[in-house]
Write a structure and sequence with these properties.
The protein has 118 residues and is α+β, with helices and mostly antiparallel strands. It contains five helices and five strands, in the order E-H-E-E-E-H-H-H-E-H. A five-stranded mixed sheet has the order 1-5-4-3-2. A hairpin with a 2-residue loop joins strand 3 and strand 4.
């Protein structure tokens, strides 16, 4: 059973992109709005066009009422999982830069050692 802290990957969220299973993300939280599609005051197409996406900016641009924000909470099923990255959490470019730094440090130590031994 899903709880408000259940984590969903973007891969899982992407599977819920139609009227029979419609999930939307706002502020890192995942909402199952399937049962709300037909009731949405802006029309079904607004939700369907944003299915399985982060619709935070669109939600904010429209200027939803406090009531709409409160209603939205009823549909929250979890949160977006933090992406696990290679290289201890560094972005991919960081992996290369980190590896290059280690190699450069190693080469520097070898050169310093050889110079010291002379």
């Amino acid at each position: 059973m899903a709880t408000l802290s259940t984590e969903y990957t973007w891969e899982e969220i992407a599977k819920h992109d139609n009227a029979s299973s419609l999930w939307i993300v706002f502020d890192g939280k995942v909402y199952d709005v399937t049962k709300f599609v037909e009731e949405h005051p802006g029309g079904e197409d607004k939700l369907l066009n944003n299915a399985a996406t982060d619709a935070t900016s669109k939600f904010e641009e429209i200027g939803h009422s406090p009531e709409a924000r409160e209603l939205r909470q009823k549909f929250q099923i979890g949160v977006v999982a933090k992406e696990k990255r290679a290289c201890g959490g560094m972005p991919s470019m960081g992996c290369w830069l980190g590896a290059a730094a280690v190699v450069a440090l190693g080469v520097g130590i070898i050169i310093a050692y050889k110079l010291y031994k002379k």
